[in-house]
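Pasting two entries for a bug report.
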Amino acid sequence: MSHAIEVAVTCDSSGQLWNACVWDPRVGTSLMTYRGGGVAEPHSLCLVGKDYLMISDHTKPLLHAWQLNSQQPVLAKGVRLVCPGHVSSLAVSPDGCYCVAAVAEKLHVWHIASGRHLAVAVRHFQTVNCVRFTDDGSHFVSGGEDGLVLVWPLAYLISNDGGEVIAGQSEPRHVFSDHSLPVQDLYVGHGGMRAHIISVSMDRTCKVYDLASGTLLLSLVYDCFLTAVTMGATEMEVFVGGSDSNIYQFGLHSPPRMREYHPTKEEKAKKFSGHSKAVTCLSASVDGVTLLSGSLDAEVMLWHIPSRQCLRVLHHKGPVTNAFFTVAPKCMFSEEMKPTLVLRSFQKSLDPNEETVALNIRATQDNWHTIDEDDVYYYDKSDHISVTSSTAEDSRLMEQIVSLQKVNSDLYGFALEKILQPFCDIQVQDMKSKRQGSTQPAASKCEVKAKKLKKKANKKKSKKLKV
């Protein structure tokens, strides 16, 4: 195994045998397998420097990582790479320092060694399908279902103190809106800012851009949906995978040259035929002789580029989601070698002064069966569930609670006063009327008696006068 110079790394959507596998392309044997994680999402298999392998989970908001010389995931060692949502695409800078994860239409940037959440880039209008870094790590390119291809300067994003880049306020360096349908794959060539960007879309076009000037150099139009793209080692030829299971080869230095070009029948005849379903991923070897292709037919094929003949087939248990060539790291075949990069748990907040507080919640034996053992990002083998929260956020919430309690108390007192005021007025009036009623009858009795006495006196006087 130590004699392998270049290896192929693949993963499929079944996850039955392993989550990712390393192959020797010369003989087609398996060199290393990685288990214990989830099924990888398309465009999410990445190498972190020369020490780790990382994928994004297909169903959970979680990233899985392994040391290249170990089959045990780092999640089992307490490193939790939890994301704000389901990750549709993943990219790691060539030096292994920064990680960019696409969650819906947002791009989240983390510093891998510290786990700090540095920035959130917002410019896409729909889900981001693929993210690629330039070879110098200064920029990364994103393509989404909205047909946009955006070029982001990494230094600008991470220098905003965790600020969110919002559309209309801070734009990416280049915005390419030439595609009319979702972008399916991207390829970024060599040369840093002088590289070429190639994108393929469901609108049946393959477009070549110049990264330095931000101009469209070439648009190739084919008869099928385009799903994957790559270039040879010399970057003189483009390999495009289509939904018709074919891989088309096109020379960039062959005349004539126009902005929009429809390949002729002779040029379309330069194709690699062998897959039975759509091609999902392409990669060319360093020597420029071998082409690797993955497909929905659960097969990875190795092709001889000059003759366009299939050399061997690597069988998988499900549709191939990721496959690429890479130079074999030394630590992959040494159990004693320790990683040089530090991998820490990811923060969920952009606050650099965030402090976390761990709360342990013990589940009872009666309802322990309701916890899914696969949800390891919140389930611990010590039958504790770890919940983290920010102290700054807790203090802010406590202030809001105290303020709301005071407002409720004042509101209650005001309402009570207004509600009881009419009843108080009625009681006061009743008391006054009672007092008036108690004095009125006594006065009236005296008057009645006086009237009676006057009547009797008048009668006596009248009798005397008659006599």
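Entry 2 (this is the one that rendered wrong in the viewer):
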Amino acid sequence: MTSALPFARGILDSMPAARESVDPLDLLRGGRGAIDEGARVAGLGGDAAAPRPLSGVPGSRVSAFLVEPSGLVAVVEPGGAADPPPVRRPGSREGSDTDTPFATSSETLALWRPPADEALELAGLPGGADGAGPDDADADGEAERAMLMGRTADGTVHVAVRVPGPVERPGVTWANIRWCGHLLSDDDSALALQAVALVRWHAQYRFCSRCGQAVRTISAGWATMCPGCGTIEYPRQDPAVIMAVVDDQDRVLMAHNSAWREGFWSVLAGFVEAGESPDRTVRREVLEEVGLRVGDVRPFAAQPWPMPRSLMLGYTARLEPGSDAEPHPDGAEIDHARFFTRAELAEAISSGQVEPPGPTAIARYLLEDWFGGTLPASPRSIDALRRR
């Protein structure tokens, strides 16, 4: 089941050895030649005196795609629209991610891959189309602006380039993977997910946790090192459980969090605490949030969720036989909770009374697994690219 989730699709060659020997900026500036040199230095091409493409994959080339600090990615507008739609940034008053329902669309999207020199220029890095970046570009900050994502099955090596903000280009728009991740191909979904996860991690971890000095980026974007005490840190994910709880009548539990927009309901979730096993977290969270006791707990699937840096561990659970089956929301985090039959949930979604989790979320797949098929269309859905 995990491989079907939008943020768990695609298998990339992560090229861990290349992270230590290949500079992503050199890849963008030197293309295939940099790949061959990196293979020679890393000893991945066999005979060190005869450089070959990494891992011996013929026809390797370098491709760049863009991500901006808040996690938006540049995608090609379906149909090649001449005028890009307005960029709506997360947290803005209009179109805020926290206030906007999920996106549904039958169109597929693709990451925009500009020429390497244009990507460098947009990131303000030397070597771009104008030969140099802006005056404030400095070597210390360059490393975190280009990150080696890995190689896809066609032999292409991909570099994510962080730009200061969305740039307007005909036929290109900026989208949040929370809303459009399910519309990307398997490879693009995996690439975008990793890039957003790294960008957000770097934004949060700028200073050493041991001595407080500003850290510098190493390993092609996949680690940081403190120049003072030498501490090395790697990107982290915080484990969280998410569970579809079912009662003895085969009804599913849904709830509304007090921090969510009106009408949006989902299954329960919570972070795994220190020294706690995930199945124990399922039981604790359900008891704390709605006062119900869970019996049988079974793993369902797992999904990375870089908003901000979670690893969602999905479970199905049944109430403990003979226990109270009436949810009692805690009134702080959860303000409404109830069990739904399949017919009740279908009617609530179709009428717009309940907005279910979006199609990128594991919560959606937990519900559809219980529902036995695709949930009904919601009148609260939006266009993935915010064109209406």
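Dev reply: Rendering is fixed now. As a check, the viewer should reflect this: The chain has three domains: 2-204, 205-236, 238-371.
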